[in-house]
Structure formats: C-alpha cells, structure tokens
C-alpha cells in the first residue's frame, strides 16, 4: 500500500524546480546494493552498551522477571485447578457444598498470589526501567567520549548528514535503545521465561498434548522470520531520510534571517516535507511487517485453541487424561503461546532498538580505521621552543581529493618571531593552521616542531603548546567568566585576576559592564547574545590566558573597527614578544616593514621574506595587495561583526567598545593600570546627581558584597578583594576607570527606558474569514491563546483527549476513510473476543459430558477457527490502517509545524527552548514517537472499551448477579490504571526534559568541535556531559520507583478480581441457581476480557512517552501564523524605494527597556549607494534588520528635546529629511505616512506585504551561510520555479560578478556540486570563508534586486577580491542610473537628484574606507541617530566625528580632533616619546 498523503502534503507547500535532496537515493532500501551493505541487526545489539558492572542489575532484573513468570505460571495452574473443580462439579463428581469450599481455598491462594505479584512486578518493572536508564547513560557517555576523543575533524565534516544530523540521530538512537531495553526488554524476558515455565508445566501434566501444540511452532517461526527479513532494511532507509530532514530543519532555523529575507519558508518546508515523505514509505513497510506478524500470531494462537482443545477432549474421551489435567495442560500451554502473542506490538520497538544499538556500535567501531588512533604520538617534550617547519606538505580535503588545497612548499616559522601568512580567499591560509594543530593529516611531506615530527607528538601536548584561534570563534552556553577561562589548561581553577587581565588585553571592559550579571552572565545559545566582534575579543582573551609557545591567529581582528584592531595588534606585538606567533590575515596594512610574510597562491608559497623586501617586487602578488591598500591609512576592510546582534540584547552590550578604542589612545596613556572594577556589572543609573566618587563607592560595595570565591562550574576561584580595593583607591583623578564610568553613564542615559508601543491587531479582522479546519481545531481545543508562546514542560500536562482531537482535522478524505475503516476493524477485533469466550466455554463443556451424551467438538472447533480467521484479518488490516493514519497525522503536524515555526517573529528564535537542536529533535525523534498514540494506543482503547462493554452486556444477560459482583471491583481496577497512566505521564515529561538538556550539551560540543579540540576542552565537556547524563539517570531512577509501584498495582488487580469472580461463581453454582455451562461462559467472558485488558494496558509507559512528545509537537503546530508583523500587511509594491525612516525609535522585543535607535532619520533613494558606518554597537545592524523587515518598529513619538538630554551626553544633531509632496502623491496615505517611522515607497511598513517586498531585496550577511544543497540551488535560493532568474546565464553572470565562477567551475560537478552546512565546510565540497562569502554575494546578485543590503561583504576577502566586489556594486548602481538617463548629484548628501522609481539602491554596512569612498553617501550613526552624512571627502574635510572614527583619533566633544596613533603610524612619523607612552599604556592594558 502506498502512503496516500504524499500528494496532499506536497500540495500545501511551495514546489521548487529542484529540491535540496535532489541527490538523495530514491529507494535505498529497495536497491540490492543498499540491502547488501546493511548488516542485519541481532538481539545482541540490544546489549551493545552493557558492561560488566551492569551484570548485577541485569541479574536482578532477570531474576524478578523469572519470579513474575513463575507467578503467571502459578496463575495458569490455579486456573486449571479451579476449572477442574468446576468440570467435576458439572460431571456430578463434586457436591455443591464441596464446590464452594474447594474454590474458596483456591481463591485465597489467588489473592496471596496477587499480593506477591504486586511486590514482584513493582521490583521487576523498576529494575528494567533502571536498566534502560543505565544503558542510556552508558551509551551517551561512551558515544560522547569516543566521538570526542577518537575522531578527526575531517570525519565530522565528511559525514553526509553533517554534525547536526549526527547529533540528532545519536539522540534518537539512544532513545530507541533505551525504550527497547527497559520495559520492552523486560516484557520479552518475562514472556520467554513464562513460555518456558508454562511449557514445562504442560509437559508435566500431559506431554502428548503439549507436543501437539508445540508442533505448530516450527512452521510459524519460519513464517515470522520471513516477514521480519524486510524490517531491518526499511528501518535503516528511514533513518537516512530522517537524517536528511533533520539537516534541513537545522539549517533553516540556524539561518532564519536568510530564510525570511529570501522568502525561503515554503522551500524549506518543501525540503523537510519531501524528506519525511520518503521516510514515510519505509515506515509503511515496517508497519506492514509488524502488522503481518501480529495478524499471523493471533491466527496461530487461536488455532492452537482449536487444535489443542480438540486433542484434549479426545484424550479425555479415551481416558488417557483427566479433565483437570487437560485443563491445566491447556491453560499452561495457552499461557505460553499468549506470551508470544503479546510480543507482536512490542516487536517493532525491539527491532528499532536492535537497529539503534547496531548503529551506535557501528559509529564507535569506525574508530579502528580512524587515523587518530593509529597516528597519535607519544612524545611530551619538557619544553616547546616554537620552531616550526613545514617541508613539502600537501593536502586536499576528502570532499574533493582531486583539488589540492596545500601544494608542496617549504615554510618555516622561527621561534620568537611574528610571522604573517597572506593570500587570496581560498589560497589555503586557514588550512595551514588546521594542519599545524593536527585537525587533518597532510597527504605528503612533514611538519616538525623543534625538529620533532608532529606525528610523534602527543596530541594533547601539541594543542596545549600550539593554540589555534579561528576566525569563527565559538561561544559556549556558560557564564562569560567560564567562556574566557576556557583558555586555561585547567578551566576549573582560574583565578579571577587572570581572567580580568585577559579581558583588559582584549578590550572587553565595556562588554562586561553591559552584561546584566557581569561575568556571571550566561552567554551563548539561549543566553545573552554577543556580537561577532565581541566573540573574537573573547577568543583573544582565551589565548591570552593560554599564552602558548606557539599561537596561530586566523583573521581574529576581522570583526574589529580600525582603532580597536590597531590597539589589539600593538598589544599582540608586545605580549607575544619572544614567542612564535603566526597571524593569518588578508590585511597587509597590519604588517610592519620588518615583519616576515608568506604569500600563498593556490596553496603554494609564491613569495616570502620581510614585508619591505616582498613589497619591493612590483610583479609579485603581495605588491598588488599593497597597491590595493596603499590609500587606506588604517584598514581597508574590516568587519563590523561587533555591530549589534540581532538578538534581543544586541545593541546594548557592544555599544561602548568603540569608545574604548578612541579614548584609550589619549586618556589611557596618562593613566595607571586599568582597574578591574568594571569587570563586575556596574549599576549606572541615569541620575544627574550621581558623582564619580559615588560610583567608585557603589562599585566597591557591589564587588565586596559578593562571595570571595567564584564558582562557575563547581570549582573555587580566588578573588583578592583587598587588591581590588587598593587598585581602586590608587586610581588617579582622571583614570581610565573614571572615563569608562563617565561614558558608561552617558550610554545608560542615552538609552532611557521607554514604553514600547506595540501595535495590537484584531485577529478577527486581520485573519481571513474562513480558517482551515486544523487552525480552528487548534484554537478551540489545544491551548489558550495567552499560553501559546510557552513551550510544554515536564510539569505541564495536556489531556489526551485534546491531543487526539487534532487527528481528524489533519486528515484528507482518504485518511478519514482509512481512520473509519481502522476503527471499524478494531471494533471487529474487540467483538471477536467475547464471541470467542462464549464459543470456548461451549468447547470446555465437552470435558464434562458423560457417557450417552453427544459431543459437538468439531462444531465449536470450526466456529473458533472461523473466529480466528476474522480476528487475524481484522487485526492485520485494522492496525495497519491505524498506523497509516498515524503516519499521516504525524507528517501533517510536522509539515504544519515547520511552516509555523519559520513564520514566527525573529525574536522568537532567540529563546533557549527554541534552539535548532530542540526544534530538530522534536520534528524528528518526537514525531516518530507520537505515532504510537494513534497506531497503538487508540486501537488498544477501542478494543478494551468495546470488548469490556460487550462482555459485560453478554455476561449480564447470562448471569446478572455474578456480573454485578465483578463490576464492583472495576472502579478499583480503573483507578489503578488511571494512577499508572498519570504517574507515567508526569515522569516521562520530567525525564524527557532532562534528556533534552543532555542532548543539548552533546550538540553544542560537536557543533563547536574545532574550538573544543583547539583549546583541549575534551575533559571539561566530557565531565559536563557526564554530570548532565548522571542527573538524567538519577531522575530515571526516581521515575522507576514511582511507575514500578503503580504498574505492579495495576497488574495485580486481575488476580483479586479473578478470585472474586470464581468465589461468587462457586456460590451461585452451589445454590443451584444456574448451570455450570452458563457459569463458565460468564467466567470466561469476564476473565478473558480482564486478562486481555491488563495485558494490553501494560504498554502505558510507552504511551505516556508518546503523549509527552505529542504535546511538544502540537505546541509547534499550534503556533500562530499571525504572531509576526510579516503576516499583517497587504499592500504589494512595484519597488521598495524610497525607504524612509522618520524619527524612528526602536528596541528589541526581548529588551523593550533598552532603546537602540533614537529618532533615526534616514532616506534610501533609488540609484544611490549608501554606506552606513559607526562605532561598534551604534545601531548599524539594527538598521539593516529593519530594512529587511525582520522587525517592525513601533509608531514614532516626538523626538526628545535637547532639554531632556543628560549633561554628559554628547550633543546630537540629527539630520531630518522632510519628504516632498510629489513623493506622496503616488500613494495617498498622508495621515499614515506622516506618523509611521518606517515607510517603503511612501507606504508604512506595517501595511506592506512583506513577502512581495522581500522579493525585491537581497541580503549578504556578515557571517556567510550556505544551505545544504548544490551551488546552483544556493545561488537560486528562494526564487520561484518559473522565475527567469533561474536561467543558467543569470547564475553564471552572478558568479562572475562575485568572482567565484572559476572556483565553481573547478568543482567536481560544477554548479551541481553539493556544498553547504552552515558556513561552508560541512557539505560535500569544502569551501573557505572567503569563497563562502563570495557565494553569498553571488546569491544576492542573482536576484537582481531593487534594494541590495550588504553587511560587511568584504570582511573575509583579500584586497583584490574586495576591490572586485566594490566595482560590481558600483556598476550595478551605475546601470540603474543609465536607465533613467540622469546622474545623481554626488555632492548632494540626501540624494535628491535621483528619481526614486527607477534603478537599484545599495546599502552597505562597512568599516572599509575604500567602500566608503566609492559610496555616494556615507551615513555615520552614533547612539542610535544619524550624526553626519555626505560624500566621503566632504565628511573628512569637515573634521568632525566621522574623521575621528576613520583616523582613530579622540573626539573630545568640543569639535576638536586629536590625531590618532594609527594615522601617525601610517605616516611613519612616530616620535620615540609617543612610542614609549603607547607601549606603556598597552602594557598596563594587558596587565604587564
């Protein structure tokens, strides 16, 4: 059968011409090769992580399972004995008085057995749950440590599913293994032992009857084995497709800005939905196999009734067997075979667990072939001098082995020397650093350190002495203090003053002052957001703490403004004097004339020598770099990664950084060592009356009030409070601390609290009049609107009814028909049980028919055979249809969830509970788990309810008084079942949350594997993960105790009810008010119904887990489409230009009290090239976010008058642009446009249809991101399938313009080569940071936008490539002007000479002076307002703030500019006294 929901799901989302999975195999499970390469999992895979220390617990679990099996065997014997008494009573052998006495005795023993079974079942289930938790903990720890310690970086990068898919897959496998090895394995062991014990009992009473029944085992086993052969390939194929789906979800959530700007929501939904649809095909095969096994087992068991009892009657008739022995033998054998029947619903879980154990073990076993294990060195020299030599080294990435990244060359890095490595993007610079720390193994040649081959050195020793700081620095989810302390060899024990000194050196004082809790503030995913520049400074602080003999810095200043970069470079020169330092850069301006340089071209050394020597070669590449940068006095291309983050905290933290760079050159030169007092959060209140002495007092009290030890991760760190006091007391009158405080106070006052005015929209008017049924159902049944943004937790419970009510609205017509048929067939299964009980009672009656009476064995046996066929067929088709419906339900919710997730506001993704790892885990593993609700639980409930109802009605008709007595015990049984369900539900949620936290640590560690390896943090993260895994395990142990108690109670109820039924039945029989046949019919009806119900409800723990995961899925599927401003506007524009900001004020939704933009006035006209500049944290990236409609500003308010400004705040003179009347005549909305702070083409942003607006906008982000797709699919990302922009000519043109065509052409499959995975190195083809940046630029150019927004587009490019990008941008703007036939007035700052309706507008956020020069207009932003704007040369001539920013001088606030040190250095007029003052200041800065 095919999955009929494919068409309906695909029709709900956008269908691009190509999907990102276009290279995926169509049917790996069906192909012979795929099957041949898949090793069939076995039962021993369940014990893949069982260790010797687990044996006692495993022994205890098996022992208690044996006791449970013994109890159930005893139950069968007791049933046989009781029925023997009834049979002898029916035959007239036992008198009524003796009947009651004998059955009463057996009933007492049944009650005793029930008490014992409660105790034993409690211990048994608890033991198995603990065993499952223990295996899960062992698997987590072993997989974590083995992957962390036994894999090269290249192994992670070469994986098809990438690191994100790997981590999600591991978490899913561990969950499946845990499920299979806890209750499920316990049931299996108990049932196997029960089978064996019952067969022994049956042999004891009648070996002939037992052998007859066992004879059916061989053909049945062969049939079941044949069916199961198709299970493993389907499971493996499904896992591969789910890994692809997880990869797409992770990429989409990680790059949510790009997904939104490029209108990629539908495409991402299509990619994900396509993958899960392919996985659904394989799950259908699994369900087919499982349901086939269930149906056959049921047919087999019922036919055993017919065959076994027919033979038993024959033996009794011949006198070879007494009725009592026959019944005991039969019930023992029946109990044995029913134990096999109960494995049917569990077998798929066992199969998945075996496959999961095999996958995890196979993942670990790859270490035998891993080069790390066989090439690990052993030498640990006592000292590292830092003499590095690379001789004839070559290297190619495994993804493209034919393209050499490093070609045979000779490089030597002498000890104690600062050496620079430069070259074009993709020339192999970064790869050199990776080879030196052994991230990869070179193919040829040799690398030596102090004349020792690097291969012979211990890896830990190597990385402790050779530290690599990469361009993309990692921030871990921990405190700021601990993130810096990670640089130490022992991150557990780092003194506070050590961290303070490192932060001083990295200019992180203002960053720390801006943090809510100082250095105790949690940063990283889910915490306070740091910008890219702040992250790079943090990485530098780590390297300062490590202070290794060899330090490799890979573009670590690209995220800094020119002034800060110059300070950092000078600090590095002083700090690293006498130690080997390798700086990889494309900024030739940072190199001194007497410093050594290697120039790489295509992975080989093209030039080497001192800078002045290499630069003198006019024909060399380095000379061209110098020529490209010769007009740049500070830096021609640096990154504003420090620009405000797009997170809620983005512009608050980084704001003061640039101020440090400017005043350190002046104020710090005359000050003493910078006080470490600012390294705790200073409470700067905006009060005019606060004087600096009070700030000093407050600062000291704040720090002294804290404990004297710092413990970020459980270790003590000493604080020298007395030293801090003395350092504060000894600060001079105009120390840097005072300057910092004054500027901090100014910042705090400039960002005054304000009441954010949020536009409240009426959902009844904004939403379409007709909602789809799924939306209506969500609104009416799942959650209150006010709680929609709160994710489910372990303590929040949603009713199962509310969850199941979402099934019907998600189904198409075919699905609804399948659901109805499935329910009908489940009712048939339920009805067959009471019919079987009555027929079987009549068959039992044949045992006490005395001579002379005619037996009708064949008649009742034939009827039972007919019931067997009907029951087996209904079981197969009913369960299969319900599994199909469950799959459609899960897939529809997945498709709905991914679309709703990606439609949420940008701020929604900043929460820790909405991290990519958690979303991916929910859409992948949780969705697979939630199917059990519909595929397993609903059939169970239908069957139990219908069966109990039919049995009770039938029993009431036959013998009402006995039935009523039995009903008296049902409330107790129902209460026990309910208690069992509630306890399981609660603890499943708690344990799921704990497991999710552990999985988050797992994901974070391997997502930043290079940083972990480079800083030798393996032990730290192993300990952290181990602590989390242990905490999860301890919760699991508590869970085991609670659910074991209630599970045991639930399972023991049947024994007490059985004794009650038999005792009262004997009483009725002894009184002569009914016949033995009728009594047996009622007893069979009640006992078979109760027994079946209890057995089926043993799956409650699994159902509780499925419900917990379903609630999480429904939370995402219940998110509102209208929660974001993106869904509000309806006005479609032919052009977004002009863009106008008028008195715009903005604060991020997460921090509404922190105002980022204040009275921002800006206009972007068509045909203009605008460069937005400013110090880090001034609001530049926030402007970009608003231009891209990632946020919607609140209504404007009147600008703050000068009278309300603080005295310390610098005067602000915003340049207001008053719109002309003609500009508003095209769109007659004067009442709105005059009040709304942001308009596109004179239309308020809240009225604009966001998707159509973004179709005319392109964006190049600061950090390049490539989606897991081919080059072609990346360049055409977001374009409609019918768009002419998808043509080959346009794609190639964009690649040529971005300077990336030659590289793409060199790839194995050209434009069809798979790349991507979050930065360029995770895909099939590895690309450098610069190549990834150029691909992002080509992606933007391929859209041929009206508005092109670039955020530091040349930060990762060399000077030559950056010049090419500038020329392309200039050409695009010039082409737009030619279309109008009118050139703009280049000297008119507001660009009024340009017609708004024509041409392209370019907005670039930059620190590059050359980029500013080619722009029509430079807009300088400070404190959230425009303070200067105009052409570059005009602003320089003014000598104002812009010149101070560019030249690195100190703006004094009175209009005077003090020339910066960077300018004097470039002019080569450094006076010796100035040099000494600067070095002294930098020494103080770094704590020397």
UniProtKB/TrEMBL annotation:
Q: Does the keyword Secreted apply?
A: no
List, alphabetically, the InterPro entries matched: AAA+_ATPase, ABC1_TM_dom, ABC1_TM_sf, ABC_transporter-like_ATP-bd, ABC_transporter-like_CS, P-loop_NTPase, Type_1_exporter
| Residues covered by region (Disordered) | 700-728
Alphabetical GO biological process terms: oligopeptide export from mitochondrion
ABC transmembrane type-1 domain span: 60-352, 820-1105
Record's bilayer topology term: Multi-pass membrane protein
- Transmembrane annotation, as ranges: 106-131, 185-205, 211-231, 295-314, 819-840, 860-882, 936-960, 1045-1066
- Report the subcellular localization: Membrane
- Per its UniProt record, what SMART domains does this chain match? AAA (SM00382)
Q: Which residues does the UniProt record annotate as the domain ABC transporter? A: 388-627, 1139-1448
Task: Output the superkingdom of the source species.
Answer: Eukaryota
Q: Which GO cellular component terms are attached? A: mitochondrial inner membrane
Molecular function terms from GO? ABC-type oligopeptide transporter activity; ATP binding; ATP hydrolysis activity
Which residue intervals are annotated with compositional bias (Polar residues) in the record?
710-728
Q: Does the keyword Transmembrane apply?
A: yes
Q: Which Pfam families match?
A: ABC_membrane, ABC_tran
**What broad class describes the main subcellular location of this protein?**
membrane
Keywords linked to the UniProt accession = ATP-binding, Hydrolase, Membrane, Nucleotide-binding, Transmembrane, Transmembrane helix
Q: What is this protein called?
A: P-loop containing nucleoside triphosphate hydrolase protein
In its UniProt entry, the species of origin is given as Corynascus novoguineensis
């Amino acid at each position: 059968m095919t999955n009929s929901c494919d068409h309906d799901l695909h029709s709900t989302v956008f269908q691009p011409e190509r999907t990102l999975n276009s290279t995926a195999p169509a049917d790996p499970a069906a192909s012979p090769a795929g099957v041949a390469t898949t090793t069939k999992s076995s039962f021993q895979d369940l014990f893949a992580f069982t260790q010797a220390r687990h044996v006692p617990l495993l022994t205890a679990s098996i022992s208690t399972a044996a006791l449970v099996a013994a109890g159930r065997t005893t139950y069968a014997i007791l049933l046989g004995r009781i029925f023997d008494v009834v049979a002898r009573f029916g035959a007239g052998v036992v008198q009524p008085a003796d009947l009651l006495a004998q059955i009463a005795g057996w009933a007492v023993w049944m009650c005793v057995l029930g008490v014992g079974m409660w105790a034993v079942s409690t211990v048994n289930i608890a033991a198995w749950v603990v065993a499952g938790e223990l295996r899960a903990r062992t698997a987590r720890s072993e997989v974590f440590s083995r992957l962390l310690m036994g894999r090269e970086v290249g192994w992670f990068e070469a994986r098809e599913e990438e690191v994100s898919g790997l981590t999600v897959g591991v978490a899913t496998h561990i969950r499946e293994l845990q499920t299979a090895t806890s209750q499920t394995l316990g049931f299996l062991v108990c049932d196997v032992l029960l089978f064996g014990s019952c067969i022994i009992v049956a042999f004891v009473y009648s070996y002939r009857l037992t052998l007859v029944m066992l004879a059916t085992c061989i053909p049945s086993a062969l049939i079941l084995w044949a069916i199961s052969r198709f299970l493993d390939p389907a499971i493996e194929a499904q896992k591969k497709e789910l890994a692809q789906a997880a990869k797409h979800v992770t990429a989409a959530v990680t790059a949510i800005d790009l997904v939104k700007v490029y209108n990629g929501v539908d495409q991402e939904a299509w990619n994900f939905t396509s993958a899960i649809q392919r996985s659904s095909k394989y799950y259908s095969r699994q369900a087919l196999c499982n349901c086939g096994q269930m149906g056959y087992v049921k047919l087999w068991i019922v036919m055993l009734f017919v065959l076994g009892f027919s033979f038993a009657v024959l033996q009794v008739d011949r006198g070879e067997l007494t009725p009592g022995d026959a019944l005991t033998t039969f019930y023992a054998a029946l109990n044995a075979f029913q134990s096999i029947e109960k494995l049917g619903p569990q077998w798929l879980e066992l199969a998945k667990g075996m496959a999961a154990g095999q996958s995890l073990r196979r993942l670990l076993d790859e270490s035998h072939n891993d080069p790390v294990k066989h090439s690990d060195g052993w030498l640990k020299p006592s000292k590292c001098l830092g003499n590095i030599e690379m001789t004839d080294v070559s290297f190619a990435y495994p993804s493209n082995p034919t393209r050499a990244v490093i070609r045979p060359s000779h490089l030597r890095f002498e000890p104690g020397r600062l050496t620079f490595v430069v070259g074009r993007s993709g020339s192999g610079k970064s790869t050199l650093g990776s080879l030196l720390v052994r991230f990869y193994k070179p193919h040829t040649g040799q690398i030596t350190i102090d004349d020792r081959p690097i291969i012979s050195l211990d890896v830990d020793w190597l990385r402790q002495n050779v530290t690599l700081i990469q361009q993309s620095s990692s921030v871990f989810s921990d405190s700021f203090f601990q993130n810096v302390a990670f640089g130490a060899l022992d991150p557990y024990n780092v003194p506070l003053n050590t961290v303070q000194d490192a932060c001083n050196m990295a200019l992180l004082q203002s960053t720390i002052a801006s943090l809510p809790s100082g250095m105790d503030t949690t940063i990283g995913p889910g915490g306070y957001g740091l910008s890219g520049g702040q992250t790079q400074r943090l990485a530098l602080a780590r390297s300062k703490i490590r202070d290794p003999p060899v330090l490799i810095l890979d573009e670590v200043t690209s995220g800094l403004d020119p002034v800060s970069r110059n300070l950092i470079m000078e600090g590095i020169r002083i700090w690293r004097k006498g130690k080997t330092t390798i700086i990889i850069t494309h900024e030739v301006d940072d190199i001194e004339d007497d410093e050594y340089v290697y120039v790489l071209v295509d992975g080989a050394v093209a030039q080497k020598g001192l800078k002045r020597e290499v630069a003198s070669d006019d024909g060399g590449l380095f000379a061209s770099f110098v020529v490209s940068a010769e007009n740049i006095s500070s830096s021609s291309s640096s990154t504003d990664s420090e620009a405000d983050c797009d997170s809620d905290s983005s512009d608050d933290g980084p704001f003061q950084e640039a101020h440090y760079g400017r005043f350190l050159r002046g104020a710090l030169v005359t000050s003493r060592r910078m006080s470490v007092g600012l390294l705790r959060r200073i409470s700067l209140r905006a009060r005019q009356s606060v004087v600096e002495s009070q700030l000093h007092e407050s600062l000291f009290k704040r720090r002294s009030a804290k404990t004297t030890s710092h413990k970020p991760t459980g270790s003590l760190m000493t604080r020298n409070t007395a030293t801090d006091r003395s350092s504060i007391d000894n600060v001079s009158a105009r120390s840097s601390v005072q300057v910092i405080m004054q500027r901090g106070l100014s910042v705090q006052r400039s960002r005054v609290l304000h009441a954010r005015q949020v536009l409240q929209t009426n959902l009844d008017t904004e939403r379409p009049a007709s909602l789809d049924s799924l939306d209506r159902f969500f609104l009416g049944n799942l959650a209150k609107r006010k709680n929609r943004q709160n994710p489910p937790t372990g303590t929040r419970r949603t009713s199962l009814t509310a969850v199941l009510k979402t099934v019907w609205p998600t189904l198409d017509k075919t699905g609804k028909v399948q659901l109805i048929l499935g329910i009908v067939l489940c009712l048939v299964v339920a009805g067959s049980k009471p019919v079987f009980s009555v027929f079987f009672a009549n068959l039992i009656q044949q045992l006490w028919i005395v001579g002379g009476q005619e037996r009708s064995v064949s008649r009742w046996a034939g009827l039972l055979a007919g019931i067997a066929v009907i029951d087996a067929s209904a079981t197969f088709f009913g369960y299969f249809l319900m599994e199909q419906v469950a799959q459609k339900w899960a897939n529809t919710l997945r498709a709905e969830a991914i679309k709703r997730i990606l439609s949420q506001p940008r701020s929604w993704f900043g929460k820790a509970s909405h991290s990519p790892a958690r979303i991916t885990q929910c859409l992948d593993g949780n969705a697979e788990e939630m199917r059990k609700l519909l595929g397993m639980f609903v059939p169970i409930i239908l069957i139990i309810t219908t069966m109990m109802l039919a049995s009770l009605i039938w029993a009431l008709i036959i013998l009402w008084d006995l039935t009523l007595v039995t009903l008296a015990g049902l409330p107790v049984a129902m209460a026990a079942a309910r208690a069992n369900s509630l306890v399981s539900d609660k603890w499943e949620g708690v344990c799921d949350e704990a497991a999710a936290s552990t999985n988050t640590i797992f994901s974070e560690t391997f997502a930043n594997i290079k940083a972990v390896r480079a800083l030798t943090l393996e032990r730290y993260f192993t300990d952290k993960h181990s602590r989390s895994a242990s905490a999860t395990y301890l919760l699991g142990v508590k869970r085991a105790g609670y659910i074991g108690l209630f599970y045991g109670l639930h399972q023991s109820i049947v024994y007490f009810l059985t004794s009650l039924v038999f005792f009262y039945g004997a009483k009725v029989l002894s009184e002569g008010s009914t016949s033995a046949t009728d009594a047996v019919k009622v007893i069979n009806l009640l006992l078979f119904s109760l027994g079946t119900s209890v057995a089926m409800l043993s799956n409650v723990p699994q159902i509780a887990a499925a419900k917990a995961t379903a609630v999480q899925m429904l939370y995402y599927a219940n998110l509102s489409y209208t929660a974001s401003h993106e869904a509000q506007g309806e006005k479609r524009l032919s052009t977004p230009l002009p863009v106008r900001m008028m008195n715009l004020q903005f604060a991020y939704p997460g921090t509404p009290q922190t105002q980022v933009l204040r009275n921002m006035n800006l206009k972007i006209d068509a045909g203009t090239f605008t460069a937005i500049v400013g110090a880090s944290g001034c609001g530049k990236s926030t402007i970009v976010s608003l231009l891209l409609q990632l946020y919607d500003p609140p209504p404007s308010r009147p600008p703050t008058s000068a009278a309300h400004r603080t005295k310390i705040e610098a005067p602000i003179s915003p340049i207001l642009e008053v719109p002309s009347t003609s500009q508003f005549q095209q769109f007659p909305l004067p009442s709105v446009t005059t009040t709304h702070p942001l308009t596109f083409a004179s239309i308020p942003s809240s009225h604009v249809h966001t998707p159509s607006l973004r179709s005319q906008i392109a964006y190049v982000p600061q950090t390049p991101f490539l989606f897991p797709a081919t080059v072609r699919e990346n360049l055409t990302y977001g374009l409609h399938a019918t768009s002419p922009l998808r043509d080959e000519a346009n794609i190639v043109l964009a690649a040529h313009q971005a300077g990336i065509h030659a590289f793409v052409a060199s790839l194995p499959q050209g434009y069809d080569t798979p790349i991507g995975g979050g930065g360029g190195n995770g895909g099939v083809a590895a690309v450098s940071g610069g190549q990834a940046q150029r691909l992002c630029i080509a992606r933007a150019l391929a859209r041929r936008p009206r508005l092109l927004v670039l955020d530091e587009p040349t930060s990762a490019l060399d000077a030559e490539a950056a010049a090419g990008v500038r020329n392309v941008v200039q050409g695009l703007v010039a082409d737009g002007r030619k279309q109008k036939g009118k050139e703009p007035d280049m000297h008119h700052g507001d660009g009024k000479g340009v017609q708004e309706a024509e041409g392209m507008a370019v907005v670039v956020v930059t620190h590059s002076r050359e980029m500013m020069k080619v722009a029509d207009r430079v807009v300088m932003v400070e404190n959230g307002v425009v303070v200067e704007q105009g052409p570059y040369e005009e602003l320089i001539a003014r000598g104002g703030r812009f010149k101070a920013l560019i030249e690195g001088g100190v703006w004094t606030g009175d209009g005077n500019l003090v020339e910066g040190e960077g300018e004097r250095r470039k002019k080569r007029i450094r006076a010796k006294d100035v040099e000494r003052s600067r070095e002294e200041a930098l020494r103080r800065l770094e704590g020397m």
